[in-house]
Design the sequence.
């Protein structure tokens, strides 16, 4: 689940710089998880759902469990964007190659 391809099928860019490259995405995942937990709490306040503290905790945990696959994927994407830069020339070349 949540596997990353070894390389781009069009341009051949390697998606992993070194073994365990995406281990750093755990730190990003923590930050994204905290943001999702805060958002879940604020949404419960906005919608007028007044829970006891245990109810708040359980609702945040439920939201985090449901969002876990998405948080992992977004975290890996954010982490990769720190190291892989978008090159419009390569994108144009690969999009022209796929049309031919």
Sequence:
């Amino acid at each position: 689940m949540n596997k990353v391809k070894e390389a781009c099928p069009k341009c051949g860019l390697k998606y992993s710089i070194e073994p365990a490259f995406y281990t750093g995405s755990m730190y990003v995942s923590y930050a994204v998880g905290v943001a999702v937990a805060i958002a879940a709490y604020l949404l419960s306040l906005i919608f007028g759902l007044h829970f006891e503290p245990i109810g708040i905790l359980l609702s945040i945990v439920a939201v985090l469990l449901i969002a876990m696959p998405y948080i992992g994927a977004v975290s890996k994407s954010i982490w990769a964007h720190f190291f892989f830069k978008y090159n419009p020339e390569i994108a144009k070349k690969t999009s022209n190659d796929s049309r031919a």
